[in-house]
């Protein structure tokens, strides 16, 4: 299943935040979106998942989602968006409750998602009892339980400390590759984008336009190796050169507000 | 080099701790002692003749009066009437306030219409409406219940609105991203998230109901705690009057404890 996002323009009142952004995500592909603050990355993700309606443009799905998919376009949120009054298992079961699934099927899906994200032992605890990293695992499990075709990830690691981010990014990668789920991964962090993505879409400062698309030829599994670091560093430098001037101007714009 | 020299010449000093205070700590003993100490001082003031019992009866006299009123049935006769009025007024006011607060929290139109009205009408002392309500609804229970309902309506509406307004947008977006219908989002996300604020509103509204029932019964009622207090004052029976005041205070404590229990049962996740 391919996701095709074509935003001719998107504005909040008179403020245009996105202009002429076309993005196609093919089945199983991981696309990172980076850009300076306020360039419309999260807006683009909102439009891609149908949470925001573009001022002008369209979003389409081509091809069929997986057979057991209940929600083709599924978000993973920066602040986890867990229901604090529900246990881990109940949070994961939440998206299934309005689907007419047999009870056994529902429980099987929840247990499967918990197991795949390493949460089976904490199924009964409340989110407040978990660390940030574990809470984001719950967010991932809740996304996986509907067997999505595309994960829409809005800076999913930015609320976590550096060590937890390192641990979780490896798990993300394992999950995405194993499940063959496509993803749009919005981030400020070059290292995350370089670790996970097949392609990195670089947006300009507001109004966000696609400035460049950087393909990463190395397979994700090999990017942790020492031999890959020089190439990744070179790509990182290229990304920074693409973004530096815009980021500097955008930072001053934000400070002026 | 010069830094080393000056360091060597200055005597070593400890860094004084300056981070104390401003940290509330539980002191249960103080809470338990506060009432007995106050009552002892009060009793001593009467026993030693520092205060005349005509103006302030002794705690023991109030306890005796309370017992007398309980045994005679006068207390229950008045208390039961007040409880009924509070019950009806609180339920009606809370239900209407909850619906209004929800409408303001969920609908832009509801907010545009409701907020100015609530802001304009909330500060009006509701007891001032009682004569008007008597004119509209006649003499009887209805105007008293309506006064209480009016008093309960506003804190409930404001609490429900604030609770709904404060629901994290990301929770609603999350539910929408899974295609949950509006009713399910309301039931499974908005209401549970707004519950702490709604219960905080209940805490205020039960106190308001208690204040208003006493006030309304003082203005026009044959029975009820307010009527009882007024009658005992007119008859210059300060011990029975104070017994009535104690009952009102205990009622307030009881209502507060009930809300506390509800919070404990429903908000374990906080």
Helix/strand class of chain B:
mainly alpha
Q: Which blocks of ≥5 consecutive residues of chain B have pLDDT under 50?
A: none
End-to-end separation of chain A in angstroms reads 41 Å
CATH superfamily of the domain at 92-262 in chain B: MetI-like
Q: Please give the CATH class of the largest domain in chain A.
A: Alpha Beta
What is the distance, rounded to the nearest whole angstrom, between the alpha carbons of the first and last residues of chain B? 57 Å
Mass-distribution shape of chain B: flat
Question: What's the assembly state of these chains?
Answer: heterodimer
Report the total helices of chain A. Answer: 7
Q: So, CATH architecture of the largest domain in chain A? A: 3-Layer(aba) Sandwich
Under CATH, the homologous superfamily of the largest domain in chain A reads: P-loop containing nucleotide triphosphate hydrolases
Query: What does the main sheet of chain A amount to?
Result: 6 strands, mixed
Number of helices of chain B: 11
Based on CA atoms alone, the radius of gyration of chain A comes out at: 18 Å
Class by SSE composition of chain A: alpha/beta
CATH topology of the domain at 92-262 in chain B: MetI-like fold
Q: What level of helicity do the residues of chain A show?
A: 25-40%
Largest sheet of chain B: none
The whole-angstrom Rg of chain B is: 27 Å
Keywords:
heterodimer; A: 257 residues; alpha/beta; Rossmann fold; 2 domains; 6-stranded mixed beta sheet; 3-stranded antiparallel beta sheet; 7 helices; 9 strands; 37% helix; globular; B: 270 residues; mainly alpha; MetI-like fold; 11 helices; 0% strand
